[in-house]
Amino acid sequence: MESLISIALGIGLAAAAGFRVFVPLFALSLASYFQVWPLNEQWQWLASPFALMILAAACIAEALAYLIPWFDNLLDTLAVPLAGVAGTAVMASTMADLNPAVTWALAIIGGGGAAAVIKGVNAGGRAVSTATTGGVANPIFSIWETVSAAFMSFLAIFFPVLAVIAVIILAFIMYKIWRSVQHFRAVGRPETTTL
């Protein structure tokens, strides 16, 4: 049961990494510093005060940088692969009592994959926002992403099973949006869908 909970925690934090790379890392560092969640032996450094300060500064810098229109699009080109790495790292760090081969397979596929897909969809949404509003709406989109990352991180740490359910709902919504965009591109008009 503990292994399943740690996998749920990892998936929730990986999804949060798809919104903001450093927010779930900071949340996990904070949770492990206050001994809310234990980490694998190789990841104990994440609970140190130094790691906590560095990740807090990185969170703030990332959130502020995404408020600058056009610069946020440049950040997305770097953040998509970084989100995959962060998703892999947070999932690997939370895995308890699993074979290393299983841990890394789940971390790369589940954690890295979830984070990269969510970040890719968000990057695409920001590109559309930039094209349609000239970047004026981008700060609102960025604030929504930061809040989503913080909420998903909170949910993953305190209610891991609910975090997995939220990830499934989020995946369904993203799929419906993707289908609508594909339909719009094919016919030139929006598809009416119900979520």
Key terms:
mainly alpha, globular, 195 residues, 0% strand
Topology:
Layout: H1 2-17, H2 22-33, H3 49-65, H4 71-94, H5 100-133, H6 138-158, H7 160-187
Please outline what is shown here:
This protein has about 200 residues and is mainly alpha-helical.
How would you describe this protein?
The protein has 195 residues and is mainly alpha-helical. It has one domain (2-187). The protein has seven helices and no strands. The protein has helices at residues 2-17, 22-33, 49-65, 71-94, 100-133, 138-158, 160-187. The longest helix is centred in the middle third of the chain and has 34 residues, at 100-133. The radius of gyration is 17 Å and the shape is globular. The model has no long low-confidence stretch (mean pLDDT 87). InterPro entries: DUF4126. This is DUF4126 domain-containing protein.
